[in-house]
């Protein structure tokens, strides 16, 4: 054997080792790739919107909103004729007998929205705006302001509108502030935000659906208060819908009287509060009763607001019993608001006991 042949015989031939499907190397490469894909997808999904300014959802902003809404309730409750003159002007003359009770009931809706804002102020102070209860309360304020804005806009667009120019714009400013603060707080808590510049509307809508999917969920409970709040929520919402879509019929059924477009406008505004802040408050208290947290401060605030709202309704409705302005639906409403006052006043005073 020659020296060349001997050298060739000693050469080691290297062959590529095939990677089997179940080998650690393949699994590691695939795992790394899938993690990178997930990270990329998660990053893109999270870029739904820019965070809102912290000043929008600060405790001070909610405190200011609560003060404004509470201040608006005072003239409606104590000087309803002056409130009618400011909002309706000449259309309020001569003052109808329904102006006084309707403005006072309207004040209870403003008080309910004010107490919701106070509860959210506490949530902003404790960094708890991302809880399902607080996000639901924020959406309740948004719906409250949005429905009232639509009512005002449609009324102002009609020939011979009953709204005065200063009354329209003063109310519109308060409603706009309500939407800005409440929607800003919801956006910051849910990472939905007010700006859609990064991802466009479709991912933002998907994120909004994800954030609101569990807001109606609640633990089923056999507690008496939980059942009471559930029944009250259904009653408030049904009443609000009927006030909004059948104002003349329900006014006749409650007060045995229907007079003037301004009375219809006020009755619909009352319905807007019932389907939004009042119903949301009652449902949130139902959740508090389910998990035994009615003794916590936010739920005590909500109970106090519902108790005051119920008390105002009772002050308006009780004197009408047996009179000419007592419609066939009045006793049923007295039963609902009487139950609401008893349950909420007990919750505000004793909590979950």
Automatic annotation (TrEMBL):
Residues passing through the membrane, by range: 61-82, 102-124, 136-155, 167-186, 227-245, 265-285, 301-322, 328-349
Entry keyword Manganese: no
Keywords from the named record: Membrane, Transmembrane, Transmembrane helix
Key word Membrane present: yes
Superkingdom of origin organism: Eukaryota
Residue ranges with Basic and acidic residues bias: 33-50
Segments of this protein annotated with the region Disordered: 30-52
Annotated protein name in UniProt: Uncharacterized protein
